[in-house]
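Protocol step 4 of 5: obtain the predicted structure for the target chain.
Materials: sequence only (see below). No template structures provided, no constraints applied. The aim of this step is simply to have a reference model before the mutagenesis design in step 5. Sequence pasted as it appears in the construct record:
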Amino acid sequence: MNDCARPLPARGKSVKDDWRAWLPEAKAVVFNQQVHQLESSYVMLSVSLDEAIELRQMGQPGKSLQAVGITSGLCRLLTQMLAGLLRALSEHAKHYGTVPNAAPLDPANFQGQKGQRSARMSSLLNSVLLSQRLQFLHKVGTLEEMVEDLDRDFRHAADGLADGLSSNPRKMWDDVDTDHYDLNTCLREAIVIFKSFLIALPESQLGAFQNTVRRQSQPLETDAPSTRGVIRHRRMTAIAGEVFIMDMRASARTTQGGTRCIRNGGCAAIGPLARNRPSDPDASTSRQPPKPVTEAEAIRLAQAGDAAAFEFLYHLHSRRVYALCLRMVNNPSDAEDLMQEAFLQLFRKIGTFRGESAFSTWLHRMTVNVVLMRLRKKSLPVASLEETTDPDDETGGPRKDIGAPDLRLSGAVDRVNLERSVEKLPPGYRTVFVLHDVQGYEHNEIADIMGCSVGNSKSQLHKARTRLRDLLQEEVRQQARQERHAAKTQTAHDD
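Step 4 output (structure tokens):
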């Protein structure tokens, strides 16, 4: 079929579908060039490291140390280019809203403990981040951090070996090999997610994305020569018998063998990724910890880093946190993002929970702070002070617009006061009020939930509203007293 007769590619339902899809010529050129540059840098690093390892195995330590010293600069060349691509993907997605498919990282694809730990955390947060946009941005950010860490660790070990300063050379050789292994995994993940990104990227934004890549990546002085059919060694990535540095022909529009080598999980099971990993209890995903039974037990396990316990807490409190965010911002999309930010904050801060208050109260306070910080960070509209507006009818001068309070932020504070007042209601009043006025249940449904009559539910709701009105009026009076006291204090100070 001719290219002109092909329909434009649509984003697939999964990463695997994206990998099988063809790319239009303009996108295919961008993809091929970027992958070729990355793979060329990776090949140079792999060949040099293989040579150093072989010299060491042949009993030539001097030459092996000299060879491994070269790999430090080659590693830097690769990681700068790879991290630049990942930063460009993240920046463009944030600015233009491009949302490709993304699959969670698999800890089994990493050999180092640090990489496995980062992948496990990424996989856990992937179940918390509900929007596809945040899942993509989090994965790209995790890969960028891993690439930078691997670059630093690899070059530290290689330079230490080359300078002869290592007190434990065997461990440093193992570190170099492990870091190279995990760099390969990050490279494969980046290539797969790069193609999914291009599938979702509108063609009109392709030029802007290329500019972002050039700005984020250090430009190459010369193009590295192709290594097809020349270099084959234990680190080279093979797909269907061919080296992964592919000449993606315009007629094929897809990677050779790619349709057989991308799993539903995302990353290509190719090269070092296809080898069996050594048995590592920490990296095993077959044995899951027992599901927590109580909230207290889940909190204790989550503070110790247990992923299943944190997921248990998420499912236990997510609806309540979402409802709180929705009441404060009155926007379902923003509420969803804020709920996810709140649980990310919880993931980072759960170790600070000391049990001095109820966990739900502590989480409520944390969520309110997250929402208020978001509202305060919202940029205000910019108006030029020199621009002349419509003249005033009386003076003929520029019309003066008097600033108004930020109703969004003020309303959020009022909603927080309402939430506090609701918490002060007796348990029976509060339950009926929340079920009816917040969550939208009908009285017959509330009667079934609480095991009472419909009339009792209506009576409790009426009493709850009356009590709540009194509490809110008391809040207003208290605020007015505080303002009068502040005014008197300021007057006395001025006098």
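Step 4 remarks: The chain has two domains: 3-274, 295-377+408-494. The radius of gyration is 30 Å.
Proceed to step 5.
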